[in-house]
Design a protein that fits this description.
By secondary structure, the protein is mostly beta strands. Helix content is about 15%, strand content about 40%. The chain contains 6 helices and 30 strands. The strands form 6 sheets. A 5-stranded mixed barrel has the order 1-2-3-5-4.
Length: about 525
């Protein structure tokens, strides 16, 4: 008789032995340490229960799942078999280890094929970073970028492409490089750039580095050199005056060498050469305005416009002053007016003058300081051969020592003092050589012209000791007329015998033994005077 179930349907006989065999076969297919696919059957109290067709479900902490809130019963997930049976007889599963195992297999495959892998820089560690590839990988600081990075912390949290450069299978350690990816991009860009590049074309680039001699521009695949002389038509001492690292600019290809991967760039060439038509802008004799940009021993450079400078030679700075250095009257940054006195377009030279904006005062001096005219001036310098006297600003004359006095002068400082105001007579004016000869003695008559009318040989004369020497004494007989008593003529027996016995200011009487007016010499003798008076 057929056996019926509760619904009235025929109940089939089950082969219990067969079911047991199938169940045991299923158990054999699950091995510890492998990843299997399972189904979520329950989510309860922070645990996710997963059925992997084993005798029991395994519980996994919900925090092992990357998006816990999105989980639902029935979802299929990959899990890692940690243990078929723990101390409590339960199946032990791990979602984290399943993901890591999957990532490890993926890393091995990508490394074998030398492909790029995407990961997120998670944190800084000693010597570099840890990168999350689904598993941790180490990124050395030297492999972050093509060039050293100032602030490495800026990379934390960034998602980047990497190349796998080292794998330790035993320890499951992975070392990655972002720099390798950048180098490949750069190499491809360089090859493409060298195929397309043409002299004279304009290219966009980014300033990568600044040096004393120029700037390196990233053209998107390779660097080009923008030399400092090609940055501006004007004068710059360093590229940082007009450029900044990270700035985007447009440059012109001046030259390139495919074999050596070198590209020369220009920036100033994007604007017209300011020396074109220069002769029309700055004709000879024209007055120009500019700014002093440099001072050198021989003159001052003046910027007339960007890229155009003129030189004021030190000889063109003043009609009257002999300057040792331009800084005596100019300084960098001064705005000045000058006269164009020469222009050489081919060699890009403009000669300027500031003194020629005014009339040469020495031309006027010839009319103003006529010979025999009496003028006043101030002693500015005293030298062995005379004294320099300033008559007006920039006009200085010389009194030669022989024109200081009708008498004999040992040194000009015996008569004159610095800054002393004196009256002089103009003797001669030479504007070509910028010289004026002056005289003081010419203010009075020459007392030696008619000396023989007042003094003769044999006369007795009196005077005051003016100077003593080892060989005799000088006696002032009248203004600018001196007599000399040699040592051997100083005394007779019983009287003073040497010059040291006399003091300046002593009054003496002596006899005239020799008179030479042309040489302005009068020889005296105390000895003969005293001897004749006996």
């Amino acid at each position: 008789m057929k056996k019926l179930d509760k619904s009235g349907r025929e109940e089939k006989d089950f082969d219990k032995k067969k079911i047991t065999e199938i169940y045991e076969e299923t158990l054999k297919g699950i091995r510890e340490g492998e990843v299997v696919k399972g189904k979520i059957v329950k989510i309860q109290k922070g645990d996710v229960y997963v059925d992997v067709s084993y005798k029991s479900e395994g519980a996994i902490d919900i925090n092992e799942f990357p998006e816990p809130a999105a989980l639902k019963v029935g979802d299929e997930v990959n899990v890692y078999i940690e243990s078929k049976e723990n101390e409590e007889g339960n199946l032990v599963l791990s979602k984290v280890k399943a993901d890591e195992s999957k990532s490890w297999q993926s890393v091995l495959e990508i490394a074998k094929e030398n492909r790029e892998i995407t990961g997120k820089v998670s944190r800084m560690v000693k010597g570099g970073f840890m990168v999350n590839l689904g598993m941790d990988a180490f990124l050395p600081a030297s492999q972050v970028a093509l060039r050293p990075v100032k602030n490495l912390a800026d990379f934390v949290g960034k998602e980047l492409n990497f190349k796998i450069v080292k794998i330790d299978r035993k320890r499951k350690n992975v070392v990655v490089s972002h720099r390798k990816c950048l180098e490949e991009i750069r190499e491809k860009g360089r090859d493409q750039l060298l195929k397309e590049i043409k002299v004279g074309e304009v290219r966009k680039g980014r300033i990568k580095n600044l040096t004393d001699f120029g700037a390196f521009i990233d053209l998107g695949g390779m660097d080009g050199l923008l030399h400092i002389t090609d940055i501006s038509w004007g004068r710059i001492s360093h590229p940082s005056e007009v450029l900044a690292v990270g700035e985007d600019i447009e440059v012109i290809i001046l030259d390139f060498d495919k074999a050596r991967n070198r590209v020369s760039l220009g920036l100033k060439q994007r604007t017209p050469n300011p020396w074109e038509g220069i002769e029309n802008k700055y004709p000879l004799g024209s007055r120009v305005k500019g700014k002093v940009v440099n001072l050198v021993d021989y003159g001052a450079f003046v910027e007339l416009e960007e890229g155009v400078e003129g030189l004021i030679h030190i000889s063109e700075m003043s009609w009257t002053e002999k300057l040792e250095h331009p800084s005596k009257i100019l300084k960098i940054g001064d705005s000045i007016e000058a006269l164009v006195i020469n222009l050489e377009k081919e060699s890009k030279k403009i000669s300027l003058s500031i003194k020629q904006l005014e009339t040469d005062p020495w031309i006027l001096a010839k009319e103003k300081y006529l010979p025999q005219v009496k003028v006043k001036g101030r002693v500015k310098n005293i030298v062995d051969y005379g004294a320099f006297v300033e008559l007006e600003e920039g006009i200085t004359g010389l009194i030669h020592v022989t024109d200081l006095s009708w008498g004999k002068v040992g040194h000009p400082k015996d008569i004159l003092n610095i800054e002393e105001e004196i009256e002089v007579v103009v003797l001669e004016v030479n504007p070509d050589n910028k010289r004026i000869s002056l005289g003081v003695k010419q203010l009075t008559e020459n007392p030696w012209e008619k000396i023989s009318e007042r003094i003769n040989v044999g006369d007795s004369v009196s005077g005051m000791v003016k100077k003593t020497t080892s060989f005799g004494i000088y006696v002032e007989l009248e203004k600018d007329v001196d007599g000399f008593v040699p040592s051997e003529e100083l005394s007779i027996e019983g009287e003073k015998k040497s010059a040291s016995d006399f003091q300046i200011g002593d009054k003496i009487t002596a006899g005239v033994v020799e008179l030479i007016p042309d040489k302005r010499e009068i020889k005296l003798s105390i000895k003969k005077y005293l001897g004749s008076s006996k």
